[in-house]
Fold this protein.
Amino acid sequence: MKRRRLIGLGAAALIAGWALRPSDRGQAHAPYFDALNQLLRREGNGIPLLVVDMDALDHNTELLARRLAGKLPVRLVAKSLAANGLLGYLAEKLGTQRFMVFHQPQLNELARAFPRADLLLGKPLPAKAALSLYQQLGNHSAFDPSRQLTWLVDTPQRLAEYAQLAGALGQPLQIALEIDVGLARGGFPDPAQLATALTWLREHKPSLVLRGLMGYEVQVAHTPPWQSQASAFAESMARYRAFIDTAQGFTDLWPSEPLLNGAGSLTYPLHAREDTPLNEVAVGSVLLKPGDFDSRLLGAHRPALYIASPVLKAQDGALPYLGGVQPLLQRWDRNRERALYIYGGQWPAEPLSPAGLRYDSLYGRSANQERLIGSERTAVDVDDWVFLRPDRSEGVLTAFNELRLLRHGRFVGSWAPHKHP
Ligand SMILES: Cc1ncc(COP(=O)(O)O)c(C=O)c1O
């Protein structure tokens, strides 16, 4: 009696398990990616690359320009757009020569490629890294760091170090002071400590030229459930204004046209439509709109960046060690019927097309030949191309040899990403 009950229960569990089996999510490439696949089969070099949809890039750039409508100039965030061709294209379209930079080799690269640029650091660099810029700049550079480069200073110690560097170099260094407007990522924490730094500057008169302030407020895009975005933005901007009020008291140091930088892709629409103390916004990623930038505020922007990788192997979705269980597992989850091994992998990206492809959590990831699984209906084969959507552009562009430019369904050129990570 007991045994029969157990068998009955087992059968019921099996039936319930079967009823709960995942639906077949496999699909062939949608028309956009099918055309891209055909194009890459003809014109690709057989190694992974990034595709920039120029129509989407133009849409994003024009939307940004329209929203800011001359009210706020844009500073292009170079780490998120790390290719000279891309930066140059956007700089031209947006009428800006302002770039925000986070890496010393990239500073030298931009000083060389954009001799008219205005470069602002997005994070404070060790004074030794700053020294390297001058050592690597060369004597014949058209770029004049004493006018075109602004270092970021976050503490009294760094202020003293940069003062010393200016003395050692025998030339003035421009600086902006990093302020904490709620992100808790360093910078001067309150107006009183900013005032102490400014008093030190006034008393020591080092060869440092104060340009203004930088306060990044991305926390406003990630508010907890108990705080509204509107109030978080208002609080952060009130903090920014308090720093400005203090700095304005130092009339001998504070410039008549200060640099007041802030924002980023995730918050720029707030500055565009609300009252803001900033006089420029830093924007990078949303022009390519990788997956981490799918937010309500950025809903009108379009994805413009894809990873394309050729399929090296297409086979039955077998897993090691499973033996006789394998067919059952595949019948239970049809999305395990096929396994594709693609060229490269382990990018911060999600499989996108054909829809229904996914990483195999039972198998793991690979940077060399990533395994993607899907059903029979994901109709791709060896030498076809699959597409992934990067989560971010920062650190992704530099992992590829080429950005291939797609316009109206045709390849119209390519850009080389920066080589330094
Ligand atoms: C200081 C600063 N400003 C702006 C940005 C915004 O960059 P993006 O527009 O690419 O998100 C960042 C990103 O990390 C940052 O650190």
Summary: The two ends are 68 Å apart (CA to CA). The chain has two domains: 25-49+303-415, 54-287. The mean pLDDT is 96. The chain is about 35% helix and 20% strand.
